[in-house]
Prior knowledge:
The complex is a heterodimer of chains A (about 240) and B (about 220). Chain A is built from ten helices and no strands.
Amino acid sequence: MSVLSNVARWFADPAHWSGPDGIPQRLVEHVQISAESVAIGAVIALPIGIALGHYGRFGNLAINISNVGRALPSFGILVIAFQVFGLGSLPVLVALVALAIPPMITNSYVGLREVDPDVKEAARGMGYRELTQLVRVELPLAVPLVMAGIRTSAVQVVATATLAALIAGGGFGRYVVDGFAQQDYTKLFAGAVLVAALAMATELSLSAVERLLVPPGIQLQRTATAQRATTFKTA
Amino acid sequence: MAIGGFLDYVDPWVNWTWLSTHLPLFWAALQQHVALTAFAVVGGLVLSLPLGIAAHQWPSVRNPVLAVFGVIYTIPSLALFALLVPYTGLGVVTAEAGLIGYTVLILVRNILVGLEAVPQDVIDAADGMGYRPFARLVRVELPLALPAIFAGVRIATVTTIGLVTITALIGLGGLGQLINRGLIENFHTPLVVATVLSIALALIADLALIGVERLAVPWSRGTAA
Lengths: 235, 225
């Protein structure tokens, strides 16, 4: 219990709520680098996944890229990026973008692929051109999985951004890494609570967005492939 | 290596001479990596099978199990280890508790997918042949769920191999130790070689599990992970 009361005291200390090592500043750093990485990753990954799913090409590649993504040790990738790009936020950004891409490609591919072929045929029969059909018919039906891919990536990026503290980055990982280094278990535990809370908040808020974006009347049917596509953990 | 001025020395990505004299280091790290992974996946399987079967039988078990392990799964590993350290200390117990916690969600999800995909006709046929519920589960439902369970084991294994590197921060790490050493000493060779070995280990383990699945479950058709 003494651990928890020390941690409660740590959170109550106003010194931890201001300045460059304060919780608000660390939160901004953590969210900023994560949001940038997910946004850049989405710009790269979604068009690829959507195109592959729409044309139904390179399915094995689109599915297996997630497996390769799972195999990447995020710690090693971050340190290698650090050795290549040096200090600053660039190495973190590069590593996080690389880890954000695979789940988004796989999920958007699966989402587009699982659109009922009858529906596509009906759209064509109604005279939709290819692009209109993609935008007005296929994408709305694929929204749940495309969003699931973004959520999966975002949660993993937030988790991996914690490791950025190991290569002199900011964010909540700072408290965990410094806590380990200084054997300050109160700081360590408090940092871990903050990191876990941020990951949960990311998961819950993006799940809420997902539910808002799903067009009314669409039944969420999670097939085995779709469920596996959202099982992705790198940090 | 020795050609060129001392000040011109640039650390190559892989120093083959150093590597050739330090192979036992990599071998030991690889062994620890495999041991940590195997224990986490087998331990996860031992926990997940009863949990998954219970979750399949009783809807009242299903949601709590998925919710609890879903929360654990969402917690970043570094934070989960840090939360466990005050209670379980630095070392194997903390590492395995965290890693097993993650594999359980992956495995339970896939066990459920597999059991739920068993066609009702097959269950009716088994009932009609006089199978009792337990025998039906063991002799009919679980064998049909095996391909999905294997898919889960593959994902759990590949994921765990990646996550083991992070246990370097609590004094283990397998290949992660060498990544950490590369970081601390600013030395590229252990960093690059350990990262490549970790990726290779994950992909080889995945292929090996596909091979085992083909032999052990000839009725599966290579479920995509």
